[in-house]
Specification:
The protein is α+β, with helices and mostly antiparallel strands. Among the domains are: about 140 residues, f41 fragment of flagellin, N-terminal domain; about 100 residues, Immunoglobulin-like (Sandwich); about 100 residues, Immunoglobulin-like, CATH 2.60.40. The protein is about 45% helix and about 25% strand. The strands form six sheets. It has a four-stranded antiparallel sheet. A four-stranded antiparallel sheet has the order 6-20-16-17, with helices on one face. The protein has a four-stranded antiparallel sheet with strand order 10-11-7-13, with helices on one face. The longest helix is centred in the N-terminal third of the chain and has 54 residues.
Length: about 500
């Protein structure tokens, strides 16, 4: 049936043309914007995901800048620590030279002082954008990532860089919890009293019998003479032989048939062994060694050492303090107190640090070679301000032989401190660089992912445009033909 009210063919052709025009408009938009999804209207779910990912890309760009800033800051600190290590090595060379007896120690000390001042200058100027990592102890966080959980929650992640203090600050002894239980003193005073062990001569002694006595690496001997085989005579002969041997820090005295071996060796024990040429006479030792004369402060290797933990040695009524910094141990405490006491140049006092082979505890040994006894005690307290890592530099003084000897031991600790600092900065710098590279690659991957979701396929869009343009032309022609169809009804009325 034909109708002049409703042209169904025209309506169909018109709807088809509208559909073609809509597709053509969408394709042209894809070509002009380069995106198949440019608004939420195109595909709300994909658009929302892409916008979240785009915000992450923007965030990671900021993170990359933060990592670059952090890497530069750490690089400055590493270079400063390496420079300090070189200067400390130069100081060590001067200290080694000062060990000689025919050198001008005053000039050597002047050179050491100049190098020490240069180290201070390096430490003070080693900052980047106002941040100095070789002064102080508070750690620094470098923004390294944004972590998005499955529920959409975002948290920031950081790379923590530990400051490595290379300053010469004295620190402040704390008033917090007592740590005195972690350190044990061997006595209440440091004196120059010799340490004694005895050798007792007994038995039936025959003429010609030889008695051997080894003290450290030196052997002394006495042969019983005819008519002089009494125990007291043998003891007297051994005593004379010991004193005549000129063993460093060792003398002998006699009481009846007992020989007293007296040692003033400050930091080393003296081993003792005895033997006879037969079983007739006997030599009996009270001990197999004479202990070192120095008093000891033993630091527990099982007690934790936290930043701000301070330990104090009261020697002769004067306090000597060392306060721990980051990641220090009982060894650092012992070496730190040694450096503080040495730096004070206490008259007649020398120090040494050793590790007890049986317990693993570190021991600070304090020897008094003067005629006056010095009171001694040790204590500890938390809550202090850490002593600078190179505090002992202030106390290096090679103008005396004793000072040069002490400086040689302390400079090794200082060099190790600066080496550890440089190594720590190098490790952090490498980690930051690795993270920065990863963030760059991650950003590229996110961009690729976003592109895969929203970017238009230009080859496909171009081909589709050509097809739609042809369809549009055909649609126009079809609509034109449909619009002419009612005119055929006019023929019926002619």
């Amino acid at each position: 049936m034909s109708s002049i009210q409703t042209n169904s063919s025209s309506l169909i052709a018109l709807q088809t043309l509208k559909s073609i025009n809509s597709s053509l408009s969408q394709t042209q938009n894809e070509i002009s914007t380069g995106k198949k999804i440019s608004t939420a209207k195109d595909n709300s779910a994909v658009w929302a995901i892409s916008k979240v990912m785009e915000s992450d890309v923007s965030g990671f760009k900021a993170i990359s800048e933060s990592l670059s800033l952090g890497a530069s800051t750490v690089a400055v600190a590493r270079q400063a620590a390496e420079s300090v290590t070189k200067l400390l090595t130069d100081i060590k060379a001067s200290i080694v030279t000062a060990q000689g007896s025919n050198v001008d120690r005053a000039k050597i000390q002047t050179n050491i002082t100049n190098l020490t001042e240069q180290i201070g200058s390096v430490v003070k100027t080693a900052q980047f954008n106002g941040l100095n990592l070789v002064s102080g102890f508070k750690s620094v966080d470098v923004l390294s990532s944004l972590n998005r959980a499955s529920d959409g929650t975002v948290t920031a992640a950081n790379i923590t860089v530990q400051r490595q203090d290379l300053s010469s600050d004295a620190g402040v002894y704390g008033t917090g919890a007592s740590l005195s239980a972690n350190v044990t003193a061997s006595g209440t005073a440091a004196t120059n009293t010799a340490i004694t062990q005895t050798l007792t001569v007994a038995g039936t002694i025959v003429a010609g019998e030889q008695f051997n006595f080894q003290i450290g690496g030196t052997t002394v001997s006495f042969v019983a003479q005819t008519g002089s085989t009494a125990s007291a005579n043998i003891a007297a002969g051994l005593t004379t032989a010991i004193n005549a041997a000129g063993i460093t820090d060792v003398t002998a005295s006699i009481t009846g048939s007992v020989v007293s071996v007296n040692s003033t060796s400050a930091f080393s024990k003296v081993n003792l062994t005895a033997s006879t040429g037969s079983t007739a006479g006997t030599l009996t030792l009270s001990a197999t060694s004479v202990a070192a004369r120095a008093e000891t402060l033993t630091f527990s290797n099982t007690a934790a050492v936290n930043k701000g933990d301070g330990y104090r040695v009261a020697l002769g009524g004067v306090n000597y303090d060392y306060v721990a910094g980051n990641n220090e141990s009982a060894k650092d405490i012992a070496n730190g107190l040694k450096a503080v006491i040495d730096g004070a140049a206490v008259k007649d006092v020398s120090t040494s640090v050793k590790k007890d082979a049986s317990t693993g505890n570190y021991v600070l040994m304090i020897d008094n070679n003067g005629s006056t006894s010095k009171s001694l005690s040790a204590s500890g307290a938390a809550g202090g301000t850490a002593t600078g890592g190179l505090f002992a530099l202030k106390g290096i003084n090679v103008t005396t032989a004793a000072g040069a000897k002490a400086a040689l031991q302390n400079i090794e600790t200082l060099i190790q401190t600066s080496i550890d600092g440089a190594a720590s900065f190098g490790s952090s710098e490498k980690r930051i660089g690795i993270q920065n590279t990863f963030v760059g690659k991650l950003t590229d991957s996110l961009k690729l992912g976003i592109g895969a979701m929203v970017d238009a396929n230009m080859e496909e869009a171009s081909a589709r445009l050509q097809a739609l343009q042809v369809q549009q032309q055909l649609g126009v022609q079809s609509l034109s033909m449909a619009n002419k169809a009612p005119q055929s009804i006019l023929r019926l009325f002619r």
